[in-house]
Design brief:
Layout (H helix, E strand, L loop, with lengths): L2 H20 L9 H31 L11 H10 L9 H11 L3 H22 L2 H6 L1
Helix pairs in contact: 1-2, 1-5, 2-3
Length: 137
């Protein structure tokens, strides 16, 4: 289920790109200022959530007594992992065990949250048809 984290993180830039494309159609809205303010707030909120999720994942993967990623290149490895949508290491049993130890009773909640984010992005993708955008990037 953690493989969805990579997809969720990979979807953030696509989501921002899609909303950038919406700017071109914004003149159809009668109240441009209100739309622009809400749009900019939405983009800031999405970026803040992306940073929060990345920080949480970095803490879970690189921190603690027995980190999943360790050594001098752990940060570079982490950044590579979260920027690669096709990263398959999320299904590593060692990672699952590490997360269960680190999250304890919150593991199921965390996995549910990641799954829910993935589902929301899939629904959003279907609504605004961002498959074409994701193939371009």
């Amino acid at each position: 289920m953690m493989e969805y984290a990579g997809l969720v993180l990979g979807a953030y830039p696509i989501l921002i790109l899609v909303f950038e494309q919406f700017k071109t159609g914004a003149e159809y809205f009668s109240n441009w200022r209100r739309f622009r303010r809400q749009y900019e707030g939405f983009i800031r909120d999405i970026e803040a959530q992306q940073l929060f999720l990345e920080g949480t994942l970095q803490d879970l993967l690189c921190g603690g007594l027995d980190p999943y990623l360790s050594g001098s290149n752990s940060k570079e490895t982490f950044l590579r992992i979260i920027s690669d949508k096709s990263y398959t290491g999320w299904s590593d049993p060692k990672l699952t065990e590490n997360l269960k130890i680190r999250l304890d009773k919150r593991y199921d909640w965390y996995m549910y949250t990641i799954q829910r984010l993935y589902d929301i992005f899939k629904e959003f993708e279907a609504i605004i048809d961002i498959q074409v955008v994701s193939r371009v990037s």
